[in-house]
Amino acid sequence: MQSGSANNSTTEATFSVRANAGTALIELIGSWRAASVSALPSATHLIETIDAEKCTRWEFQPGADFAWDSACMTRLFLCARHCEQQNIEFDVSALPAGINKLLTVASAVKPQDKQDAARIGVLQRIRNGARSLKKYVVDFLGFVGAVILALIKLCSNRANMRARDFFYFVEQCGPQALGIVALIAVLVGMILAYLGSVQLRQFGAEVYVANLVTLGMVREMGALMTAVIMAGRTGAAYAAQLGTMQANEEIDAITTLGISPVEYLVLPRMLALVAVMPLLCIFADVLGLVGGALVATGMDVSFTQFISQARVSVGFDDIATGVFKSIVFAILIAIAGCQAGLQSGRSSAAVGQATTRAVVNAIVYLVIADAALNILYDKLQL
Amino acid sequence: MTNSSSDGGANAETNVIDVRDVTMRYGDRLIQSNLNFPIRRGDIFVIMGGSGCGKSTLLKHMIGLQQPAAGEILVEGKNFFTATPEQQLAMRRNWGITYQLGGLFSDLTLAENIAVPLQQYTQFSVAEIRDTAAYKLALVGLAGFDDFYPAEISGGMQKRAALARAIALDPELLFFDEPSAGLDPLSSQRLDELIVQIRESMGGTVVIVTHELASIFAIATNSVFLDADSKTQLDYGPPRELLHNSEHEVVRRFLARGEKP
Ligand SMILES: Nc1ncnc2c1ncn2[C@@H]1O[C@H](COP(=O)(O)OP(=O)(O)OP(=O)(O)O)[C@@H](O)[C@H]1O
Ligand SMILES: [Mg+2]
């Protein structure tokens, strides 16, 4: 950059301090510029050296070959701030006019007081941890409550939800997920069949591999695997969308328009998932069987044998348990995604964190709900 | 159309930026065509025009973010798009830019935002960077806000913080897109003064996109007016002269705030 001085020589920057009746005369010599910043006396060094003279007035003067730019300004600014704090008179009127003007601008507004973060002890940490756990649970329950209220309003047809949004999200999370769900379901079916047939062969009961694959897919894996896929695909997308809307103040805009963000944004997303996930689950069940059949036919179980065995092993209630699971999972994924998004911070980093939180929370919810449902089914002998 | 020829001494020495027969498009959509004007060294140059006429777009063309559909823009005699990568880096080091929407990195504090260009282009020590950031923030009236995140300060403060980042390297060429939009009249005036101060004490040239008539008349030494209807520059010259002498009624009315001058 251009310096305030016409002098272009690069004499080394030095300074001298002379104390005289309470006034420190500081002479700045040479080129005080960023280009030679490593050779410049640091601000702290400058302040300490002058302070050692214990004067009540600092007067700066340009010395030989004095040249300056922001590097010099930074130092003078910090000196000025130091003087203000210590009630020292600060005088740069002998320095070039540009320096004076910039210093005036820089000191025009009083600095904001810095609040140092207080040191945190172990007990306080534990207390904070407990508090944030409580906040987590309260937030979750509060959000679930808001969703339930919105659903009730929807039933009485007073909710602010656009049908168009619902269909848009159905398309987003349904047809477009078919490919990945198909791939994973076939592979999981194959894995189940492979694991099962290796074990069952020891008892000569290989034909029962069909039972294992069918029940495994229909009761458990079909719903769980689609849910995991949808948590990563749709739950994360929901969090990112809502988080970005939060960062852009769009959520604020919706709220101040008198529209409930939960009704307007969360309901269509959640209902779309609830509509789509059972279908995806059945789709996954069927493809899992196909995958199982592929492996089984490679292991001396004929295709027709596999199909007839599969047919007798599974009843309507088995299918219903799986489908019911997938509905519960859909609700949980939507809640995890939308909650993370709506409670996201306002920066791009916060949106990233919200997305991560959406997926992690969704998977935790899924596993807990799956365990709970299995216990429930067991008690009900389903 | 008044263009560069009217300015007489259109030589490479005095012209920092030379816009030559530039046409700007987004895809097939024509934004502006036949732009022809120089920006002289030391000017505070204002790009004005109605909303949506392509002012921000022109700025993006000047800073090498978008390539003209036709014509060329010379900055210090060099066309950014034909320069070598090293030259491009050297050009960019001399530019300080603020964006219409702020462009502050939202996951960094204000001090860290200002540190980014310093770390990129200088060998400053950590303490030096911290001190420089404190000084630059004080210049824009944000002393003590070093550790705040952009989301924690107001919109106008974000504008000023972006300005502090733009001047971190003492660039010779400053580009501001609507720096005073969203500021109160006093802060806006302070910002104008700051811009003048920075230019006076550091040298350098400032290109500003703005609608603020007050700041246009207060600080601009030269200007160009882009028109959305004819999709070209209607006029070029110091705003005070344009107010009275422009041959285009739109320009005179724009500068007189819709009243007949
Ligand atoms: N990324 C983009 N893609 C396509 N068109 C765009 C893009 N950015 C801007 N435009 C169009 O180009 C035109 C000019 O936009 P620009 O942002 O340059 O306007 P402006 O003069 O800066 O307006 P304002 O004063 O409101 O900021 C507008 O009509 C806009 O629709
Ligand atoms: Mg713009």
Give a brief description:
Chain A is an alpha/beta fold.
Secondary structure blueprint with pairings:
The complex is a heterodimer of chains A (382) and B (261).
Chain A: E1 14-20, E2 23-29, E3 31-32, H1 43-51, E4 57-62, E5 67-68, H2 70-86, E6 89-91, H3 97-106, H4 122-155, H5 163-173, H6 178-201, H7 209-247, H8 250-256, H9 261-297, H10 303-313, H11 316-342, H12 348-379
Parallel strand pairs in A: 2-4, 3-5, 4-6
Antiparallel strand pairs in A: 1-2
Chain B: E1 15-26, E2 29-40, E3 44-49, H1 55-62, E4 70-75, E5 78-79, H2 85-93, E6 95-98, H3 110-121, H4 126-139, H5 155-166, E7 173-177, H6 185-202, E8 205-209, H7 213-219, E9 222-227, E10 232-236, H8 239-245, H9 249-255
Parallel strand pairs in B: 3-8, 3-9, 6-7, 7-8
Antiparallel strand pairs in B: 1-2, 1-4, 4-5, 9-10
The complex binds adenosine-5'-triphosphate and magnesium ion.
Report on the structure:
The complex is a heterodimer of chains A (382) and B (261). Chain A has 382 residues and is of the alpha/beta class. Chain A has helices spanning 43-51, 70-86, 97-106, 122-155, 163-173, 178-201, 209-247, 250-256, 261-297, 303-313, 316-342, 348-379, and strands at residues 14-20, 23-29, 31-32, 57-62, 67-68, 89-91. Chain A is elongated, with a radius of gyration of 35 Å. The N and C termini of chain A lie far apart (79 Å). Chain B has a single domain (42-53, 85-256), classed as P-loop containing nucleotide triphosphate hydrolases (Rossmann fold, 3-Layer(aba) Sandwich), CATH 3.40.50.300. The longest helix of chain B is centred in the C-terminal third of the chain and has 18 residues, at 185-202. At the A-B interface, α2, α3 and α12 of A face α4 and α6 of B. Adenosine-5'-triphosphate (ATP) is lined by residues 26, 31, 49, 51-57, 100 of chain B. Adenosine-5'-triphosphate is lined by residues 26, 31, 49, 51-57, 100 of chain B.
